[in-house]
Amino acid sequence: MTRACHAAVRMATGEVFTDEEIDQVLERMADRAWRMREASPTLSRGKACTTALDQLTREAIKEAMLRQRSQMAAEAARFARAIGDV
Q1: 14 CB burial (10 A radius; 0-12, 13-18, 19+)
Q2: Mean pLDDT for the stretch of residues 50-69
Q3: Residue pLDDT, tens place only, 11-38
Q4: For a tag site, which of 1, 6, 28, 62 has the least CB within 10 Å?
């Protein structure tokens, strides 16, 4: 992706992501938007990109929630084992 895209991401997020991470997200967004426009040619590029980013964001949030839930369950199991060992 272009450095202009990186600049826009950095303005919105700060220095949270590496160039490679930004490239990965933008490539995933572009691929998804391209598939959407291929399936629906009347869909504007802007709408396809916005929709693709919304979907990627929802997926990332779900993944983070599942990871957190798994960590909490593992901690609860460790705690229960520790109490049982006393």
Answers
A1: exposed
A2: 95
A3: 888 889 899 999 999 999 999 999 999 9
A4: 62
